[in-house]
Structure formats: structure tokens, C-alpha cells
Write a structure and sequence with these properties.
By secondary structure, this protein is mainly β. Helix content is about 5%, strand content about 45%.
């Protein structure tokens, strides 16, 4: 009996030794690690340390200090005494010249914003009666950055704020002045909302996807130099909109991908630690098949595209494009307060939440965006105007349609609604945007209306976004209106999601503190099966065939490849005593909600993200394709 146990032990030891030898061959290499923005800026900032040679008379000037914001610079110097420093970034005239005074200190890190591209800019710094002129030279703009045209009605009524836009897909997040000159842009693709924060920084999407086609890993707090102070990651990622709460927390449009549905999930994250402190699932509030518009699909039944918190009523306002509905829910309980929209196709039980129109010239909104509550308590919406009906036989063609910004006054006691202002109808189809777009409240009777997704073919407006229809021109129009007078209009080639008017030096507060990552992408779901990886084939046989690329980001493994719809693909992470299997979703219906079918080709480029959470130790990477296992000759260490 003892002999049998000894023999069994020897076999086990031999197997372990064989596995150990197998996993330690010299050909195996680590997965290539890709630097991220925070890692890059940490390395850059190691050189941004003041020395005694950095003086007011001889300041150190670093153009594009974080490598993603080319029309900025960082000016650095020391002074013996604590001193206020004033700067002037010289523009073409008074309206395009920027000035700012910085707080008194001995160590001066002066961010320079609003430089012109492809020229030597004049920047004046002064203190204690002394003045120094700096010459800062910038590179030319990228050839594919869209130029602007402007119409200025009342230049004396404009200030030197810039008009910021974010692209709907391809393009640049950029800022234009009143003459249409580009005065700021990012080289990283950060889409969705561009939110100016109370502390003078910006909130933007990350530059990484968590799911196709446009769900990002989360948001970043960043200054105009491109320096990231915080990166917030979420398991359901981020899309469309974010709102800074009065307590500093962030409300975000997110997803619960495990549910099989998208764009119907809201989260609140703690600004200090990145933890999710509250969630709202709209499937618990509304019926998914109610209020269907032409754009409705089951997995994207609501398509939330805005988030707004109103402190006076402690409520959240959301915009469901695919139900033509703006809804308001109680922050504390998540219960439904009211719905704005045509109640056609809604169940009887919801009719009590709808308003009854009063007054003249009333029109409902359709496929709307950017719903907000103004300080006066009005509901401000960009009414895209798609079809202008839920009944197909009453649809209005795009060539006869229009989009508009619209203000509604609501009475939640008597449940009445009155249209008190609009802009856009009078411009007809040339202002018609079937998707995206924005409105902003600047002050009483002072608004920004952004028709961001105009699509035309042979000069005729189209009813669908680029990608779902033929087109030969894309453009956007951003209009500033005060007391019903158009003060300014910015026209851009290309479609742009959001527009904001921002004073770039408002509350500016540069800090050389290290960037911080908060939150989590969560643990990637594994698939319950085992693969015997000892019997495999050479990865070189399929690497080029399927265009497979494998990289490691700071918090996840990224595997990309091009496959056919019928292919079966599994990523295998294997160690001598553990195996993790991750099936790759190759489908004509991925987690997607953009009105563009990105999976309409015979071959699909797909990306599988495997998050670090839940993994520990050293794993060897294999890929199983159509039943055959291939050894990548790579390992990854968690």
C-alpha cells in the first residue's frame, strides 16, 4: 500500500515538475505594458522641479507640458518674497486677450492658456512693477482639426470666454474664440460632456473604452494643461453626461452591463474615494416597452443622454431619447415625479405623471437631449425634433423639420406645462440635428443653443445620424442668444456632441500633486469550463491572420482581434494551479446604443478587456480559436 502511495506521489511530483518546466521556458515574455496618461505625467513632472536658476528674469517655459494640450504652456520661477504675478496672453484685440492674477507665493507655476497655433505668441508677466515679455512658439494645428466660421452680431456684448466643443466620435475636443480661432484643444479623444467644475478644472470622459462602441472606463478631473488630478473608474463605465453635486459628489450616466440592457442606469460616486454610494435603475421606475419612438430597441429602451440634479426639489432630471421623454425622479427614493412628452404609447398607469399643455404655440419635444432645470425652475431642453410624432403616418420629413432649444414652465400641482421660449424653429431644416446637441443656461434670458449633429446629402437634411444614412456634409451650429438677440454663432464642419461657453481662467488652480486613480472597473466575469493548455499550437499561425494585439494597461489586459461572426474565441489565463477562461463576445448585437451598426461587416474587430480585480499571481496567456488552443508565449503578472 505504501508503495502505491509513493508511486502516486512521484507521479504528482513529476507532473508538477513538467508543468513548472513548461511554464519557465526562456521564450515566454511579459505582455507589453502600455503607458497611460497619469503614468506619463508622473514621469514628466519629475523634471518640473524649481531650481535657483528659474527666476522671474529667466523663467523656465515648457510648451505643452503634459503632451496632450498643445496650445498651453507652463511658466516656472522662484521669487525671494511671496508675490502676486499677473499675466496677459495677447490676442488679436481686447476681446481675445486673456488676463489673470495669481495668488501670492514664492514658487510660481503659471499655466498659460489660449495660445494661437503655428505662431510665436506674446505673453506678458508682471510683478511688483516689473514686466517681462515672453515669446512662446506653438506647432501648427493638425490638418484634420475642423476650422470654424463665425457670425458676430454684437461684439461689444461678448466677453473673452471660449466656446468649447466635444466631438460625437472622431475629432478633437477644442475651444474657439469669437473669431473662430482655435485657442485650445486636446490630442486625446475625450468625448461626451465637458463639464467646468467649481474648482476651475474640467470633468471629461477618459480616453479608454470599457465596451463598444463608446462607453468609456469613467471620467477624469483635468486642468486645461492636460494634467489629470483624478481618474474615476466604474464597472459600468460612463457615457453622455456627468453632474457635479452640491456636496462635490458626481452623478453619472452609467450602465449595468450584466442586465443585458444599456443607458438606463445612474450612479453617484464619492468624489473623495471613488466609491459608488447610490444607484438608480430605470427598469425599476418605468416600463421598458412604453412610449416607444422610432429609435426604440429592446436593449436600449430608454437611452438616457443627460443627468441633472436640482437642489431645490432634491430631484434628478433625465432624458430618455428613445421614449421621447424627460423624466424627473426623487433623489432619495427614486420614485417618479413627472414626465414631459407626448403620452402616446404609454400605459394608462403613467398618464398621471404627464402634464397638460396650456398657452399658445405649444409643441412637445422629440428625441431630446441635455435636459436641465434653470434657476427659475424652468425645464430647458434641446428638442431634436425627430419625426415630431410617434405615429408613423404623421412623421415629418427631415427636409421640413427643425431642432430647437425650448423652455417649459411646469406646474407640478395642477400638472400643466407651458412653452415660454424657443429658438431654432425659425431656422428650419438647416438647424435640424437628428441626434446629439446641447443647451446651456448662461444667465437670465441668456442661452447657448448647440445644434451639433446636422447631416445633409446633396444639400438636403437627413433624418438619421452619420453612419445610418448617406451623407456628403456634416456640421454643427452653436448660437449665443441674449434677450432674444443673436450675439454670436459658431459654425463647424463635423458633428459635435456638446458645447460650453467657459472663461478659461475662471478659478484656475494649478497643482503639481500626483494624479490619483479612484474607483474600480470590477471583476471580469469568467466562463465555467476547463481547457487543457499543454496541447497547443504555435501562436504565429494565427496572430497575423486574426490581427491579434495583446497589451497591458494599468488596470486590465487588452486583447484585440478581427474575427468572423461565426468564430468562437476564448482568452485563457493559466497558471499551474489556476485557470481563468474569458469568452470573447462576437455578435451583431454587442453592448452598443449609438445609432450606428458597427457590426455590419463580415469581419468584426473586437476588443476583450480583462480587469485586474480578482486576479493574483503569474498567468500564462493562451487563445482558443474554433476549438484549437494557441500559446501566445506571453505571461502577465498580477
Amino acid at each position: 500500500m505504501k508503495t502505491k502511495y509513493k508511486l502516486l506521489l512521484l507521479i504528482i511530483v513529476a507532473c508538477v515538475c513538467c508543468v513548472a518546466i513548461y511554464y519557465n521556458v526562456e521564450k515566454v515574455k511579459p505582455v507589453t505594458i502600455v503607458d497611460d496618461l497619469i503614468a506619463m505625467q508622473t514621469e514628466l513632472e519629475s523634471d518640473y522641479v524649481l531650481t535657483d536658476e528659474d527666476t522671474f528674469d529667466n523663467p523656465r517655459i515648457i510648451v505643452n507640458p503634459y503632451k496632450i494640450s498643445p496650445l498651453t504652456a507652463l511658466v516656472m520661477f522662484k521669487t525671494n518674497d511671496s508675490t502676486i504675478v499677473n499675466i496677459t496672453v495677447v490676442g488679436k484685440d481686447e476681446k481675445t486677450t486673456l488676463t489673470h492674477s495669481f495668488s501670492s507665493t514664492k514658487e510660481h507655476y503659471i499655466p498659460i492658456y489660449g495660445l494661437y497655433a503655428g505662431t510665436t505668441n506674446k505673453v506678458i508677466i508682471s510683478m511688483n512693477g516689473k514686466e517681462k515679455v515672453l515669446e512662446i512658439t506653438t506647432d501648427q494645428l493638425p490638418e484634420d482639426l475642423n476650422k470654424a466660421t463665425t457670425t458676430i452680431s454684437e461684439i461689444e456684448k461678448l466677453d473673452n470666454s471660449f466656446y468649447f466643443v466635444t466631438p460625437s466620435s472622431d475629432g478633437y475636443t477644442a475651444a474657439y474664440d469669437i473669431y473662430g480661432d482655435v485657442r485650445w484643444y486636446l490630442t486625446e479623444n475625450m468625448i461626451w460632456d465637458i463639464q467646468p467644475l467649481e474648482n476651475g478644472n474640467l470633468m471629461l470622459s477618459t480616453n479608454r473604452l470599457v465596451n463598444s462602441p463608446y462607453y468609456t472606463t469613467g471620467v477624469v478631473e483635468m486642468d486645461y494643461l492636460g494634467k489629470i488630478y483624478y481618474e474615476y473608474s466604474l464597472p459600468g463605465g460612463y457615457h453622455h453626461d456627468v453632474y457635479e453635486m452640491p456636496n462635490g459628489n458626481l452623478l453619472l450616466a452609467s450602465d449595468d452591463f450584466t442586465s443585458g440592457y444599456v443607458e438606463d442606469y445612474i450612479v453617484e460616486i464619492d468624489r473623495e474615494n471613488g466609491e459608488i454610494v447610490k444607484t438608480w435603475d430605470l427598469k425599476d421606475i418605468l416600463k421598458m416597452d412604453d412610449g416607444q419612438s422610432e429609435n426604440w430597441v429592446e436593449y436600449d429602451w430608454f437611452h438616457n443622454n443627460s443627468v441633472w440634479y436640482d437642489e431645490k426639489t432634491n430631484s434628478i432630471t433625465l432624458s430618455g431619447r428613445h421614449q421621447d421623454a424627460v423624466i424627473n425622479i426623487d433623489y432619495a427614493t427614486g420614485t417618479l415625479n413627472w414626465i414631459i412628452g407626448d403620452k402616446t404609447n404609454w400605459s394608462e398607469e403613467y398618464h398621471k405623471y404627464f402634464f397638460e399643455p396650456i398657452g399658445d404655440d405649444f409643441e412637445w419635444q422629440w428625441s431630446q437631449h441635455a435636459a436641465m432645470i434653470t434657476p427659475e425652475g424652468y425645464v430647458f431642453i434641446f428638442d431634436n425634433g425627430n419625426n415630431k410624432s410617434k405615429n408613423e403616418d404623421e412623421y415629418v420629413d427631415a427636409s421640413n423639420s427643425y431642432s430647437r432649444g425650448v423652455l417649459y414652465k411646469i406646474d407640478t400641482v395642477n400638472m400643466t406645462i407651458e412653452q415660454i421660449w424657443q429658438y431654432g424653429k425659425e431656422r428650419g431644416s438647416e438647424f435640424y440635428s437628428p441626434y446629439i446637441s446641447d443647451v446651456d443656461y448662461l444667465n437670465t434670458n441668456h442661452y447657448l443653443i448647440h445644434s451639433g449633429g446636422v447631416v445633409t446629402y446633396e444639400g438636403v437634411a437627413q433624418n438619421y445620424p452619420a453612419g445610418l444614412t448617406d451623407y456628403d456634409a456634416l456640421y454643427s451650429k452653436t448660437v449665443e442668444i441674449k434677450n432674444d438677440q443673436v450675439l454670436f454663432e459658431l459654425s463647424l464642419d463635423g458633428n459635435y456632441y456638446r458645447a460650453e461657453k467657459i472663461d478659461i481662467y475662471s478659478n484656475v488652480n494649478y497643482s503639481n500633486a500626483s494624479g490619483i486613480r479612484l474607483g474600480s472597473l470590477g471583476e471580469t466575469e469568467t466562463d465555467n469550463h476547463f481547457n487543457l493548455v499543454l496541447f497547443n499550437k504555435d501562436f504565429d499561425e494565427v496572430k497575423d491572420k486574426y490581427n491579434i494585439k495583446i497589451t497591458k494597461e494599468v488596470d486590465r489586459l487588452v486583447v484585440e482581434g478581427t474575427f468572423k461572426k461565426e468564430d468562437s474565441v476564448t482568452i485563457i489565463l493559466n497558471s499551474p494551479f489556476s485557470q481563468k477562461n474569458y469568452d470573447v463576445r462576437i455578435s451583431t448585437k454587442p453592448y452598443t446604443a449609438l445609432c450606428v451598426d458597427v457590426f455590419n461587416k463580415d469581419e468584426l474587430t473586437v476588443t476583450k478587456y480583462i480587469n485586474d480585480e480578482g486576479l493574483s499571481g503569474k498567468y500564462y496567456l493562451f487563445i482558443k480559436i474554433n476549438g484549437t488552443i494557441y500559446d501566445s508565449d506571453l505571461y502577465i503578472y498580477y
